Amino acid sequence: MAVLGSIIKSAIDLRDNLVTEDSPVEAQQNVLKNLLEKAQNTSFGKYYGFKKILKAKDTATHFAETVSFHDYNKMTNEWWHRVHEGFEDITWPGKPDYFALSSGTTGKTSKRIPVTKDMIEAIRKTGIKQVGALANFDLPPDFFEKEIMMLGSSTDLEKRDEFHEGEISGISASNIPFWFRGYYKPGEEIAKIADWDQRVQTIAERAHEWDIGALSGIPSWMELMMKKVIEHNNLETIHDIWPNLQVYTSGGVAFQPYEKSFNKLLARPITVIDTYLASEGFIAFQQRPGTTAMKLVTDNGIYFEFVPFKPEYVNKDGSIAQDAPVLNLSEVEKDTDYVLVMSSVSGAWRYLIGDTIAFTDVEKAEIIITGRTKFFLNVVGSQLSVNKMETALRELEQQFDIELPEFTIAAVKKNGEFYHHWYLGTTATIEESKLSEVLDTALQKANKNYKVARGKALRGVKVTTVPPSTFHEWNAKNKKKGGQVKMEKVMDEEKFKEWEDFAASIQP
Asked: Where's the GH3 middle domain (predicted)?
């Protein structure tokens, strides 16, 4: 009998029954007040008059009217460059111990995002909340005695002046509580290996030593790790070496595009739980079964605002017009795309992380990620967001019984006319013209603006298929493998030409 597991499960069940939470709207009001109070004597707080905002009758409205929107470049050029140089009390009291490096999905140059002690503590508390939410899932007691494979970036953080730098997954893993270290795999020694291929190879060689019950990481890199373990140990599925694997905690991107290929590596279904951990903080996690939506973390160090995701409010570079309307949690509507804006205990203020979300349940504050502001293709009025693109691709998968885990797209001009050129990652051998035709039809069905564009200036769709590994190699060439690295879904013509040349150069 799994005695320890029964005790842990009982403790989680008890905590879930005892802990009461404020409503999401009330929690957000308290978070905003706490953020303003703590940062009122920083340079940022003095500049924007946080003391005055705190005295306002409607704090949220006065905050939104007073403080500008900031993307990374604006935040860094005006404020964070002084944090990078070691000055204190700039946008948050004191100075951070860490900077999260994030090239995101749009460039080679890493962003350096402050990670304060308060943010690390907030991430830790949200992690505990997520563990508590396991009480809502039908998991047996022995699951809570198994080990967890966390496949993130290297925990061997770089020292730069007085700070340590790395991806947020590496920073989080390097701050794992002592009581969790016995469960955490691949362990501190392997996690410090900087080279991703070497780290995965070592995991494959040591895999037989562990009793893994849960996996955690970005789907594309998790798939590659499992394939390496299966190949190295001459297995049929990952369950042949980890028979007690029952849970996969996804994160960073939607899991649905990877579901078919992921499941082929399993002997039986496992519970998939979505999370939303970004370089800027732990934003949301799936709290209950029966949904793919995630609950916003409304009571732990992050205040959220929402800008309607419409072309007139979003600039070409993905930033937001300063006069764009903004809503707080009490004002949002279900099934509407919003640009996510956040203020946090790392000293990010009205900060655009570049993601768009939609609420599936406003009362529960449950969301899905619908795309990126920079991955919004509106050439000739097509108004294609990532979720519309992926909806169409799921239809292709179903119709042709294929897997399409990766893609990228650009609007290209040929002979004076615009076309959408798609690159689809697949091992299937289907005529590209057939894929183009079905994809075009699916997009017209999913998006009325696209249908209108196809009847006017958008002349057609072209599909090129390449192996999914092409996308992984592109990321390796331009950024690096593993960790938080994700593929850009929409490219401009210049970047797309680089992509085409690269894709052609590595094809057999």
From this structure: 297-362
Place of tokens 């893993």: 173
299/245 same-domain check: yes
Q: For residue 368, what are its two tokens? A: 């899905």
**Quick one: 195 and 320 in the same domain?**
yes
Query: Tens digit of pLDDT for each residue in 156-192?
Result: 677 787 888 877 777 777 776 666 667 888 888 888 8
Question: Residue 107: what pLDDT?
Answer: 45
Which candidate, 192, 230, 184, 182, places its Cα nearest to that of 208? Answer: 230
The confidence band for 508, taking pLDDT boundaries of 50, 70 and 90, is: low
Checking if the pLDDT of 379 tops 70, the result is no
489 and 397 in a common domain: yes
d(CA 290, CA 130): 16
How far is Cα 259 from Cα 392, in angstroms, rounded to an integer?
Answer: 15
Q: Could you tell me if 337 and 411 lie in one domain?
A: no
Instruction: Please determine, for residue 475, whether its predicted confidence score (pLDDT) is greater than 70.
Output: yes
Separation CA 303–CA 281 (nearest Å)? 11
d(CA 165, CA 398): 43
Tally of structural domains, the chain: 2
The CA–CA distances, whole Å, from 253 to 218, 377, 485 equal 7, 19, 10
pTM: 0.81
User: Does 6 have pLDDT greater than 60?
Assistant: no
Residue ranges making up the domain that contains 102 = 1-373
- Pair (362, 410) in one structural domain: no
Q: How far is CA 146 from CA 4, 153, 185, 216, 271, in A?
A: 11, 22, 10, 13, 15
Supply φ then ψ for residue 326, to 5 degrees. -135, 145
Which one, of 101, 490, 57, lies nearest residue 279 by Cα?
101
State which of 354, 373, 392 marks the end of a domain.
373
Phi first, then psi: give them for residue 47, nearest 5 degrees: -60, -40
Higher pLDDT, 179 or 10: 179
For 86-90, 229-233, 260-264, which range has the lowest pLDDT when averaged over its residues?
A: 260-264
* Last-in-domain residue among 341, 373, 405: 373
Claim to verify: residue 65 and residue 156 sit in the same structural domain? yes
> Is the domain of 438 the same as that of 308?
no
Sign of the CA dihedral 461, 464, 468, 469? Answer: negative
Same domain, 209 and 334: yes
> How does residue 7 score in pLDDT terms, banded at 50, 70 and 90?
very low
Half-sphere exposure of 393 (CA within 13 A, CB side): 27
Select from 94, 195, 237, 209 the least CA-distant residue to 149. Answer: 209
Q: Which of the 8 DSSP states describes residue 31?
A: H
Instruction: Say which CATH number the domain at 307 has.
Output: 3.40.50.12780
